Amino acid sequence: MRRETLHAWLMLLPALVLLAGFTHIPAVETVVNSLFSTPRGMRPSHFVGLGNYRNLIADPTFWQAMRNNLLYAAITIPLSMGIALAMALLVQGRIGGRGFLRMAFFTPTVLPLIAVANIWIFFYTPGFGLLNQIGALLGLPNMNFLGQGATALYAVAAVSVWKEAGFFMIFYLAALQTIPPSLIEAARLEGASRWHVFRRVTLPLIMPTTLFISVNAVINAFRLVDQVFVMTQGGPDNASTLLFYYIYQVGFQFWDTAYAATLTVVMLTILAAIAIGQFFVLDRKVHYR
């Protein structure tokens, strides 16, 4: 028994070393750094306790980034999950060109995020962008989607939904294929409509997948930085600044590493609280067997 236990730990050792070196130790160092000031030139860092957290509470840019991020999450999470489920239901059925549709829906997922952002910049370009060209045909005025505070965040969110829906579709499609056809046939023999079959049979059986996707969707909504950097750089006037992009600005543009660590701790705490809440709320509705 001891030999088997030793063998098991030796097999786990490489993964544990990587996990500790790239996850746990940096996380602990981030928490520690948030309690110190940022070293400047010949001036070393010194312990400030909760000083950085007090500065964070009084930081208007942080609160704006937080509001933007919550709005961005409220838009992208339900839309991407809903569209993903609709696409999975579509390509699950017996329709012509099913393989082509699956490939078309999944293609945005494999594109690099930087490439996606540049493609959509062309769509949003005032005057000759694709969306403005279509709008001109319909008699709509020319719009600067990325240059207006009222539309910049929604424009970025639309790109995220377009890219993420195909990724989530794969998980929903796999979940739908595990549902025994006999259950659906039995429900239809009882006279259940397609809506009732979906609501009473399909939806409960794919709830484990929905829980998994929702957790990943929340994480994706709070870790976006590349797309904002390429498309808007947080503008105009921080209208599209998200929390992770603000952390990037503070840490790599302003070189205030201690305050960036403080923002990171707050973001991780928020994500952990949301994830725990999701498990407590959604886990009651999950049928694992």
TrEMBL record:
One Gene Ontology cellular component: plasma membrane
ABC transmembrane type-1 domain ranges (all copies): 66-276
A Gene Ontology biological process term: transmembrane transport
Principal localisation: membrane
Membrane topology: Multi-pass membrane protein
Any Pfam family matching the protein: BPD_transp_1
Subcellular locations according to the entry: Cell membrane
Entry's transmembrane regions: 70-91, 103-123, 197-219, 258-282
Gene3D superfamilies referenced in this protein's UniProt entry, alphabetically: MetI-like
Keywords from the UniProt entry: Cell membrane, Membrane, Transmembrane, Transmembrane helix, Transport
Family per record: Belongs to the binding-protein-dependent transport system permease family.
Protein name, per record: ABC transporter permease
Organism: Allgaiera indica
Organism placement in taxonomy: Bacteria, Pseudomonadati, Pseudomonadota, Alphaproteobacteria, Rhodobacterales
